Amino acid sequence: MLQSKTFSKKTRGGKVQKLVREVYLRDDIYCGASFCKVCDTASAPLTASASTILVLDTNVVLNQIDLLENPAIEDVVVLSIVLQEVKNKNTSVHNRIRALCSNPARKFFVFSNEFHRDTYVQTMSGETPNDRNDRAIRVATRWYQKHLSDVAKVLLITNDKENKRKASEEGVSAETIESYVQSLGQPALLDLLVQPASEDVAMDEAEDLRPSKRKVVYPEHKPMSEITSGLTSGIYHQGKLRVNRYNPFEAYVGSESIGDEIVIYGRGNMNRAFDGDVVAVELLPRDQWHEEKSLSIVDEEDEDEDVHLVPSSADDAPRPTKAVSGSALNDNSLTSRPSGRIIGIIKRNWHSYCGSLEPMPMPAGSGSLVHALFVSKDRRIPKIRIQTRQVENLLDKRIIVAVDSWDRQSRYPSGHYVRSIGEIGDRDTETEVVLIENDIDARPFSTQILACLPPLPWSVSAEDLANPCRMDLRHLRVFSVDPPGCRDIDDALHCMMLPNGNFEVGVHIADVTNFVHPGTPLDDEATQRGTSVYLVERRIDMLPKPLTEDICSLRAEVERLAFSVLWEMTPGAEIISTKYTKSVIKSCAALSYVEAQARMDDSRLMDPVTQDLRNMNTLAKTMRQRRIARGALTLASAEVKFQIDTETHDPLDIGMYQIREANQMVEEFMLAANVSVADQILKHFSDCSLLRRHPTPTKDMLEPLLRTAAAIGLNLDVSSSKALADSLDHAVSDDPYFNKLIRIMATRCMSQAVYFCSGDLSPPEFYHYGLAAPLYTHFTSPIRRYADVVVHRLLAASLGIYTLPIVFRDRPQLTSIADNLNYRHRNAQMASRGSVELHTLIYFRKRPTETEARIVKIRSNGFIVFVPKYGIEGPVYLTPKGEKGGSSGGEWFVDEQQQKIKKMDGSVSYGILQAVKIQLEVAEPQPNRPKLQLTLVS
């Protein structure tokens, strides 16, 4: 049966088009109930074990998804019209409800009510789309009630009063989600309910004020119509709020309309916005813009004080690994910066947060409803007020809480308990917190995904060897050089002397795309995960282990498929020719960096592999010098390495990661392969290549580095990457750590490199500042990075091996993939750092240690130090907490120009990069927030 469906669509030109589509209505769509006497019940998911079938309206799905994910909720019908509405309103919730519906362990069923003859409804004259959808939900529920009347009870679950009233009038059984949950007799489930904003209790501390008498804490948000008008006229400015990771009272909004970041200072000016919210900002009068002031360290105990602290210009970009948390470091700016206040939220970034309940007295009655304050482990997040009936079970747990609303009359947002993670302080619990905080998917791969893998044991087939697009390179002396214990080996090398005196050098990369095909569940999962995540004690793979550690891994003495870049190079490392080919290789050795270095250093060893290593190292050194001469930067980071107990997984030792010549040799050839491949794919696909760029730092970004350099008499030229590289090379002193510290400081002034679609930017914007390369991409780690998988497909298409997948013709989708890769890459970095912080705390908890540190930043009440031995950075206080030094009073005086802090009587002074002795120990100034405390040893 055909039915016409009419709807209106607004064109880009502002005109309204009337569109008519024909819908084919069927009467053979089954209801999904296994006990139905009419429908085909094979593989039907609904069993009605509680003898009740639930039909959900859209708002219940949107607002109560945490509850729906609880196993206690079962036998649920999700109408197709509800699914579509949810998709239009919230992609994240749509993905979660789809996951429930596709999980065979959960009893959720999608019913296509829009295509069923008895449940399809036409839009009535004067009816809004929302009213029509509500009516369609009621019609479908009534059909279910009639269809299953003899065997099960069917309930419409809705919190919409009007929808519930109409359902009652039409003879449809309906309940609110709260009344249904109460009927289940499981009080703990009530904690999962989202409370509507209008019912927000919002009682501050011990105050029990009626809503009508509550104080107004925050300004009212402007209506969207006024915000839109203000943005158009230039009165307001739009951007994403970025809260300083080390100072929760300070945030920044990057505004394209004024071409600068707007500083938002104090919780009042943040006006209930969360980190990541898209906000509308009104600039404050210029006399209220922040200028240079004395600098201080803000401690954790100040966190609840909504005071106007010293403003900061600290870039909250990811820094190299730091094994310390819990201090807010306030930097300064030499010039006044635009400051503003948030007048409205354009798009919320609320999600679930990990943390614990603030300690509180135990309630009198067990299981009674109490109000509690949740403290997130992420200091950028304000405390969240929740209601719970299980406080006695949660006080010693890490838990997840979601935000529901934030009333302007409440100091804190309101939320609800989602689930418990585990005991506070337990390593596995705290590791899971790190993963959840950084949105890392650590779930096992589904059977659907694993079904995409070839059966084990796998080996190269005769068909692979006969493929005309694949070269047989098994005769070459190929070897890999990786970190010790590496099992996911995705790159290997070879170097062969040619009769003409030149070298054939090959970079061979695991041919992952031979097994990961576009549009498969395996590819979809890899697209979402984006990258493997490396924690201190384990790795979370982007692809299943059979691929990463066996089928694709270029292990020694086994034949494997590869994608190879082959160069002919002169002894002076000049590239004569480049060739790209799919290949079959057989690695003869899987070396660690230490083993490769030992071979090169042992003059007694003259075996072929060692000779190849030495030849490659000679070429790599020449290539490196040439790259540095072009302006490539050699930066440094505080990378930490742990020695882990294999049984307990506790850290046994901690230290800075050592870089050897062998590391640099491998890096040089990987960089060269990435540059070559970038050039090849862009030649063939100028609009849809996935590339990687590193934006040039602005003068403002480099200002902290220049200030520090000037204070120690160092002249840094930052006019170009070449000038900066030369300046860094000349920054030497008797202190063995001096140059490394300067390079670490330079690293922190840089923005992150990012993936992008070539069609989105112009060629001058493709430039990679750190590498001084006009073109760059990622090709060499497809086992670990999805970006490299995309690039492998582009390279194969450029060689005519495969046709270009259809996704490459959809630039918005490509841009979306690049955005997700950047998001996942950043989160993986943050998770790695979070794991380092956790294991550093575990290590020093039982090992208070005295060691040497270097001062890297001066503050009015102390300084920030870097501990070279452990790669740790943190604050050292000179004045009692809560006091500040400064030229106008106090015990200490800060000389901003010389970057020194001195006692007022001149008896003691500390300067930038000075060596000091400190004690490292774990302290807990706030409950459940341990931190590494650094104390000056007199």
Automatic annotation (TrEMBL):
Gene Ontology molecular functions: 3'-5'-RNA exonuclease activity; endonuclease activity; RNA binding
Superkingdom field: Eukaryota
Entry cofactors: Mg(2+)
Main location: nucleus
Presence of the UniProt keyword Ribosomal protein in the record: no
Family matches, as CDD domains: PIN_Rrp44-like
Segments passing through the bilayer: none
Region spans: Disordered: 310-335
Cross-referenced InterPro entries: Dis3_CSD2 (IPR041505), NA-bd_OB-fold (IPR012340), PIN-like_dom_sf (IPR029060), PIN_dom (IPR002716), RNase_II/R (IPR001900), RNase_II/R_CS (IPR022966), RNR_Ribonuclease (IPR050180), Rrp44_CSD1 (IPR033771)
Coiled coil: none
One GO process term, biological-process aspect: rRNA processing
UniProt keyword list: Exonuclease, Exosome, Hydrolase, Magnesium, Nuclease, Nucleus, RNA-binding, rRNA processing
Segments forming domain PIN: 52-165
GO cellular component, one term: nuclear exosome (RNase complex)
Keyword RNA-binding set for record: yes
Subcellular location: Nucleus
RNB domain mapped to chain residues: 470-801
PANTHER family assigned: EXOSOME COMPLEX EXONUCLEASE RRP44, RIBONUCLEASE
Family indicated by similarity: Belongs to the RNR ribonuclease family.
Name of the protein described by the UniProt record: Exosome complex exonuclease RRP44 homolog A
UniProt source species: Linum tenue
